[in-house]
Automatic annotation (TrEMBL):
It comes from the Eukaryota. The keyword Repeat applies. Keywords: Repeat. This is WDR64 protein. It comes from Edolisoma coerulescens. The gene is Wdr64_0.
Length: 342
């Protein structure tokens, strides 16, 4: 009971603090406010909240709440938001449709299989809708395929042993049925269907620059080949086409204690073009637009969207600039927009 009384008292003081901030902000907007010792800035607001509620509130929630009041004092946020809780709006007249919900509880399924060990992180997660499975790649070399069969998940994992190179991205080759992953100096091709523990994949090396991302070019047509796009730390974008015959004609003997056969990168025709002046952090082929897109931390050539033929010629590419570059992007076919994040 005492704790309840103390909380009600703290909440009342908190609401008084918010009212003072709203009055202060309203006066500032009208030019009637003069600064004095009672001015409430962020530091004072943060200290007061911590005194009232202690560790029950997090810094990011305090920042968000303060920002909301400053930006829109006419619509003060609910006090629950200071604890990271948000109230949903509903008129109670209709049940939420399937499209309006992020997740349906009955359709969620947790994968309890441990993909990575301590001090390891996932660097790529790719969904393959046609085959109903998901591919993941960890930084330290664990490649995994989660296959949804008979309403349960089965996983196939492989550990690519490496001394120094870390995996930086992954994708799936739909025609050749291989998992592709890139490290700082190699391209990995894993035959996840193989039941053999030895020689169930290939490594293309050496790559002169550090590879940072990879994406499959999804086009209809040839069933015996796949094309991938790769970006490196020098701003280059590569185009690599792989065929079934390559795995027979271009392979060399596997090195000792290796499960993969090796292929010389010099034996491939691998067009490349410098499109950025900094790291290529993400690349993707957008099949709906029949264009590839790449982004970089480069402030001048930040985002490129063009035909893959531009990688084999010197014609100008369509691009735009963003201060401090672009770190991520996605395409929404329904809205026909590309969204970037810097």
């Amino acid at each position: 009971a005492l704790e309840l009384i103390d909380f009600k008292n703290a909440l009342e003081q908190f609401q008084n603090l918010v009212e003072k901030m709203i009055i202060q902000k309203t006066k500032e907007s009208s030019g009637l406010y003069t600064k004095d010792d009672d001015e409430i800035d962020y530091d004072k607001f943060h200290t007061t909240i911590q005194t009232l509620f202690g560790p029950a509130v997090k810094d990011q929630n305090i920042q968000a709440f303060f920002r909301k009041i400053i930006n829109n004092p006419n619509e003060k946020p609910e006090w629950l938001e200071i604890f990271g809780c948000f109230l949903g709006e509903s008129d109670g007249t209709s049940s939420p449709s399937k499209e309006s919900m992020v997740f349906l509880e009955s359709e969620k399924q947790q994968i309890t299989h441990s993909v990575v060990k301590r001090k390891d992180v996932l660097k790529g997660i790719v969904k393959v809708p046609i085959l109903h499975f998901t591919v993941t790649a960890s930084q330290r070399g664990v490649l995994t395929v989660f296959s949804k069969q008979r309403k349960s998940f089965f996983s196939y994992s492989f550990y690519f042993h490496q001394d120094t190179a870390w995996i930086t991205g992954c994708d799936f080759l739909p025609n050749l049925k291989y998992v592709v992953a890139v490290t700082e100096s190699t391209v990995i091709l894993w035959d996840y269907k193989s039941k053999e523990r030895q020689n169930n994949g290939f490594v293309i090396k050496p790559m002169k620059n550090c590879l940072l991302c990879v994406s499959t070019v999804t086009t209809s047509g040839h069933l015996a080949k796949d094309t991938i796009l790769m970006g490196d730390d020098k701003g280059y974008v590569y185009l690599l086409t792989l065929m079934n015959d390559d795995f027979i004609m271009k392979q060399s003997k596997a090195e000792k204690e290796s499960q993969f056969k090796f292929m010389d990168s010099e034996s491939f025709n691998m067009p490349k073009r410098k499109l950025h002046d900094d790291w290529v952090v993400k690349i993707r082929y957008i099949s709906a637009l029949k264009r590839f897109a790449s982004c970089s931390t480069d402030s001048i050539n930040s985002f490129v969207l063009d035909d893959i033929k531009r990688l084999e010629d010197n014609l100008p590419v369509k691009e735009f600039s963003v201060p401090k570059g672009v770190n991520a992007f996605t395409y929404c076919g329904k809205a026909k927009v590309i969204v970037t994040g810097g």
